[in-house]
Amino acid sequence: MNAVTRHWSAVRDALDNERARSRSVLRTEETDFLPAALEVVERPVSPTARVTAWVLLGLLVVALLWLFLGRVDVVASAPGKLIPADDVKLIQPGSGGIVRAILVRDGQSVRAGQALVELDPTVSDADTAQAGKALETAQLDAARLRAILSALDGQGLRFTPPAGTTAEIAATQVALARAQLAEIQAGSQTRAADTESARAARSEAQIQAAKLNETLPLLDEQIAANETLLEKGYVSKLKVIEMRRQRLAAARDRDAALATARKAEAQIAVAGGNSSQSMAEARARILADLAKAESDARLRQEELTKATKRSSLQRLVSPVDGTVTQLAVHTVGGVVEAAKPIMVIVPARGKLIAEVTIANKDIGFVTPGQPVALKVEAFSFTRYGAVPGKLEQISSDAVQDEKRGLIYTARVALDRATIRRDGATVPLTPGMAVTADIRTGRRSLASYLLSPIDEIRTTAGRER
Q1: Helix/strand/coil (H, E, C) string of 95-119?
Q2: Which of 220, 254, 382, 396 has its CA 20 to 30 A from that of 226?
């Protein structure tokens, strides 16, 4: 405590002496009349050096305070470009073909549904016509077979042609159906005739057998009477033997007639079964042909649908309102390849976003929701400023870039899609190159300036 008191007393005495000396010093204009030697001694020291020293010291203190207390943004720069929020629309032909007409030019505004390019439809139209004819043939076959089935079921020949069938073709199909039905019925009639013939033979045999059955008792009586007469000697034995022979012949004829009747009965049964079998076989054949025709009709319908779709794709139209860019076809008669883009439609009045690529070294510090300053390459940001935005989405996996290595794709939502230029508001357009400064945090200037030294300190001395 005594030491502090002594130091404070010394400082106070020095200040008192300085004030006393200042009062005793002559003014500058008074020293002008003194001799040169006294003028040098008595003239007061210029305060410029002292003031300069104090100013420099103050600036140094302010600079140090700014270095340690001042904060700056830490940003991750990501290059990219502006794109529509709903993406551009690639126009690609569904199949290869020859260009018939180019209906737009690069930079032209188009409406949704407007024709862009027409391809030669000759081949696709031929395929469509061929598929249509094949479908018509299959449908006619199915309709004819249904009519035949209707006739076989006793409902008459009901032919219902497909829509669009001409009267001439319908008449031809009806005639063909009648011919097929007549063929089936002819086979049935032949078997019916066989049945009738067998029935007639059976009736004849049965009549013959009945007649012989009536004759046999009479012959038996004659034989008995003649045997009585033979015993009395009135007739010869040969006559009796002859009558017995006649009786045996009549019995054999009766048995033969009965056998013929049984055979005819069997023939009737066989003929009836054959007739039923023939009709069943004909019906089964018609049903099988109908199923095949209906299946073929369904297949042909699918082929016609595909052919019609291919024909419609020969006329490429715009899916949205927008502007034509990157037109790749310029020659009528040129060949285009399937699925190869021939132009791009940039949607009109769509919201713009920035699609940027983040370096692998920065991906650990960026998260969705961080503020972003977009510097548009077309407008110097030092003069026109940056467009504010917010990091909206980051891809979950990296892609390989030939120059930058592994990078992540991200999307930035813009707070506005315009920029001020010389007092006028200029809209931003898709395709403009931008650099997104993503603010990942803040740090002091001292930390920023000392970071290279710290990096060298931590890595130095490790080399062999």
Answers
A1: CCEEEEEECCCCCCEECCCCEEEEE
A2: 254
